[in-house]
Design a protein that fits this description.
The chain is mainly β. It binds (Z)-L-Arabinonhydroximo-1,4-lactone (6LW).
Length: about 500
């Protein structure tokens, strides 16, 4: 069967996966967005359906006024004795914690904290014991992949944290995951930083604390030397064995926006790469250690069809699954109906490191038409292409001195500029329209069947290379106003990918 990468498109970084029965479950990091840690399920590894989030309550995660790309870093999902565990780090508060559930479709527990340094925690269960690992510095001052035993009920450390591997020599050793395969312990990690030099490396040992011997051809997976251009930055992944005993890596990567444009604005996405174990017990991955846009492989039955949802509307998405807020929202300012959204603006704007009235859905592909009807009484409301508080493009309607106007505002670092405004004769039945391509967004407003272009902006200024950080563009519907009677009504939302 031939399948295409990414298998989950848009800003869903740092995937971790586990399998229970014949179903796979996958989680991703979510940073300043809430609910935290999107959760997906799949029966075939190529079609993933979001079934919820792990962090759905304010009591589980501190996101109040946290920095963009802070908050919830890379998670790990594991299953043991009938219970699912998800562990992650709140990078802003420097705390590792885990939550658990016995019902994957239900709520997860309150957080249980583990006192170890670093990021990217993972769990490994063996003989009724739980081992906790992350990157960081151990109790003896050595940095690397650090491991201790914990009490799974309380999170309390039962042994000192000890460095078990220092990597293959690349910078930013992170993302450790431990597996026991055919009696040996495999430690898979990432190195190189989550940019163009990213890579997956691994080591193997006869016992859980080593000595770990690095694979002699590390990195086992990297696209840093791949010809062509699109799939870059592959790394940070988790190994999984499928129903037919084949092995795979689910890992992150990103799609560069153009051959001569080394930028990516859609965030880091989820890629699937086949893994082959040799007779000597060492494994290789992908096409000669690289991840390609598609793989033709008999690991997956020919009757599996990879489907892709191309159209997103209010009616065919779920507010709780597909949409997200910036930090913890004040729910009183949101009325989420089946085919209508009503937002109450506050004086918190998109430029604030706070929770403006905003609800967003990830931009999943380069080419798209995004449109929505927006009606306001006062203040401002519209669509934002949001990377962070200093990098976002807004197409909005706002109240002006003698009526209403449509505006295109660009926010690029310290430059914040309303590029164009068009006076609206009639404020009803206004549709805001954004056309997206690899390199450009265009912004238009349509009233009474007359469409006017406000302007264009390059995608690259919303990219990770320009904005920094770890997120990707989210299409946000927002409202702001200093007048407490301001309500904005959004109908007929469409995001159509080509
Ligand atoms: C994550 C780290 C990384 O915790 O980026 O690509 C960090 N890898 O493992 C943020 O996503």
């Amino acid at each position: 069967m031939k399948y295409n990468n990414p298998v989950i498109k848009g800003f869903y970084p740092d995937p971790s996966v586990c399998k229970v029965g014949d179903t796979y479950y996958l989680v991703c990091s979510s940073f300043q967005y809430f609910p935290g840690v999107p959760l997906f399920e799949s029966k075939d590894l190529v079609n993933w359906k979001q079934i919820g989030h792990c962090l759905t309550r304010k009591s589980q995660v501190q996101l109040d006024k946290i920095n963009s790309s802070g908050g919830v870093f890379a998670p790990t999902i594991r299953y043991n004795n009938g219970r699912f565990y998800m562990t992650t780090t709140n990078d802003t508060t420097h705390q590792h914690f885990y939550v658990w559930t016995d019902d994957i479709y239900g709520e997860w527990s309150e957080p249980i904290y583990v006192d170890q340094s670093g990021i990217d925690p993972s769990l490994f269960f063996e003989d009724n014991k739980t081992y906790f690992m992350s990157n960081g510095i151990d109790d003896y001052g050595v940095s690397g992949i650090v491991q201790c035993e914990i009490d799974i009920e309380s999170g309390e450390k039962l042994t000192p944290s000890k460095t078990i591997w220092t990597g293959s020599g690349g910078r930013y050793l992170e993302s450790p995951h431990m597996y026991k395969i055919n009696g040996k312990y495999y430690l898979v990690a990432a190195e190189g930083g989550t940019e163009y030099g990213h890579m997956v490396t691994y080591a193997r040992a006869d016992s859980l604390y080593g000595k770990f011997e690095g694979y002699e051809n590390n990195p086992v997976l990297t696209n840093r030397n791949l010809g062509g251009y699109e799939v870059q930055g592959v790394g940070h992944g988790d190994l999984i064995q499928d129903n037919y005993d084949n092995w795979w890596l689910l890992h992150l990567g990103f799609r560069q926006s153009g051959q001569w444009e080394a930028y990516h604005h859609l965030g880091r996405e989820v890629f699937l790469t086949p893994v082959i174990f040799g007779e000597d017990g060492w494994f290789t991955a992908g096409d000669n250690g690289r991840t390609t846009k598609s793989f033709e492989i008999n690991y997956i039955n020919n009757d599996v069809i990879q489907k892709e949802k191309k159209h997103y509307t209010f009616e065919n998405t779920k507010w709780d699954n597909d949409w997200c807020y910036l930090r913890i929202p004040n729910k009183k300012n949101y009325k989420l109906d089946k085919n209508k959204l009503i937002l109450k603006g506050t004086d918190i704007t998109l430029d604030d490191v706070d929770s403006p009235t905003f609800i967003g859905i990830r931009q999943r592909d380069f080419n798209a038409t995004i449109s929505c009807n927006v009606e306001i009484t006062d203040g401002e409301a519209g669509i934002t292409l949001y990377m962070d508080e200093n990098h976002h493009y807004d197409l909005a309607i706002r109240k002006c001195e003698n009526g209403y106007e449509a505006i295109e505002r660009l926010n690029i670092g310290d430059i914040k500029s309303v590029e164009k405004s068009i006076y609206l004769e009639n404020k009803n039945n206004i549709s805001l329209i954004i056309n997206a391509s690899n390199s450009y967004y265009s912004f238009s407003v349509k009233s009474e069947n007359e469409e006017s272009i406000l302007g264009y902006a390059k995608t690259r200024y919303l990219s990770s290379e320009v904005a920094g950080g770890f997120t990707g563009v989210v299409i946000g519907l927002y409202a702001c106003a200093s007048n407490s009677f301001n309500y904005a009504e959004f109908t007929n939302f469409k995001c159509m990918y080509k």
